[in-house]
Amino acid sequence: MKVLGIDPGTAACGYGIVHESDGRIRALGSGCWRTSPRQRPEARLRTIFDGVTGLIREHAPDAVALEESFVGADARIALSVGQARGAALVAAASAGIDCAEYAPARVKQAVCGYGRAEKGQVQRMVRTILSLE
After folding, report:
1. pLDDT tens, position by position, 89-106
2. Following DSSP, what letter does each residue of 48-85 receive, concatenated?
3. Rounded to 5 degrees, what are φ and ψ at 129?
4. Structural contact between residues 29 and 87, judged by C-beta atoms closer than 8 angstroms
5. How big is the CA angle at 79 (ends 63 and 86), to the nearest 5 degrees?
């Protein structure tokens, strides 16, 4: 099974593609789309949409996994992240690919065994699990 994971955001939208076969997981690629706050919102969202569409075309994932929305103290950031999620969801839906959403704490629990793990801990575990440098 091949999965495209997306950490949505309009300033930086991260992604990773993994492939599981015979109980082994390997990384196929990762990266980040960056947009400037000087760009119009629709142009920023188009960058994300086009990026997701391109990855889907290139890698033909079986599913897309996205981080669930988080509404913190800043409603503007929550709206921006929600728009980025929407661009990614529409790109996946246009390609007929199922999407699943996961809370950050659930991902941290699965990767690190602790739902409140710090970013550094998550990075180290992902590197270990995927045998990355």
Report:
1. 999 999 999 999 999 999
2. HHHHHHHHHHHH--SEEEEEPP---S-HHHHHHHHHHH
3. -60, -40
4. no
5. 25
CA 117 to each of CA 78, 97, 105, 111, 113: distance values in angstroms, whole numbers, following the listed order: 22, 30, 8, 9, 8
Closest to 82 in 3D by CA, of 101, 62, 97: 101
Angle at which helices 119-129 and 104-112 cross, to 10°: 50
26-34 long-range contacts, CB within 8 A, separation 24+: 26/130, 26/131, 27/130, 27/132, 28/2, 28/59, 29/55, 29/59
pLDDT for residue 19 is more than 90: yes
Distance CA 26, CA 58 (A): 17
Residue type, 111: V
For 23-75, write each residue's pLDDT tens digit.
999 999 999 999 999 999 999 999 999 999 999 999 999 999 999 877 777 88
Q: Which residues, in sequence order, are CB contacts of 44 under 8 Å at separation 6+?
A: 10, 35, 36
